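Lab notebook, bench 4. The sequencing result for the construct came back, and we need a structural model before the next group meeting so we can plan mutations. Quick request posted to the team channel:

Model the 3D structure of this chain.
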Amino acid sequence: MTAQFRLTKPALQDIEEIADRIAQQSGLEKSEKFLDKLESKFAKIVAFPQISRKRDEILPNIRGIPFDRYLILYMPIGEDL
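Done. Here's the predicted structure in token form:
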């Protein structure tokens, strides 16, 4: 079975706000490029969930990986993220 990931509502809101801000400041093309790169990063995390370091100082069992000027935080749960 292939691992999957789910985004929380706050994560979705953050992504939407960031994409909107990029579109306003730099244009729609840059915003779409950001979202494409983010999707690729999610695919990499799903394929290699242990790729990032543990961030237990934030929350037990959470992991974090840098992405541009941001930090993606995720928690592996069984086979899923």
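Strands lie at 53-54, 63-67, 70-74.
Will bring this to the meeting.
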